[in-house]
Write a structure and sequence with these properties.
Blueprint lengths: L1 H22 L6 H8 L3 H7 L3 H16 L5 H4 L4 H16 L6 H4 L5 H28 L14 H18 L5 H11 L2
Helix pairs in contact: 1-2, 2-3, 4-8, 8-9
Amino acid sequence: MENNNKGYKETILLTAKAIAIKQGITKIDIRSVAKNSGIAIGTVYNYFPSKGDLLVAVIEDFWGEAFAEVDWKSFEKDDFYDNLERIYNILYIHLNKFKENWLEELSFLKTHKKLLGKQKQNEYFRNIYNKIMKMMEMDKSLKQYQWSSVISKDKLVEFIFENMIMMLKKGEKDMSFFVVILKKIMSN
């Protein structure tokens, strides 16, 4: 029975993701997932008691999948700016699987559901933020930069990360212009 239960949960999640990809994340609801998966609505509720729970699972799956194949250790040896572009490209390609930009769509969800999804998303965002910080610290050419109270490492990483997310929301294909700006900022 345990194996079958895992199969149901996986099927429900895959169906919800398919809806998000084809119609947008705001179109996910328990009834449509039940109908499209061929699983009874009560069974769907057993695994995901609310739409919010299902959205959280889809968001968690999305971020997990986005970085599943990334070898973070390889980022420690390369140029910081090249690494930023690699991360951006991974996210851009992954987001492009969806009909609508789902980062933007999260803002349309009802408050409680949005909060659940945002909490899970923020965990992944914190992970990316920390990776950017580590990549910055590993790049020998950036070690000579004179940090100040105006431009601290934390503030710069926050600026980089927030701009990357903003560009992804807008659907920018690459971040080369932003990297040029960063290089100007960091060139003292």
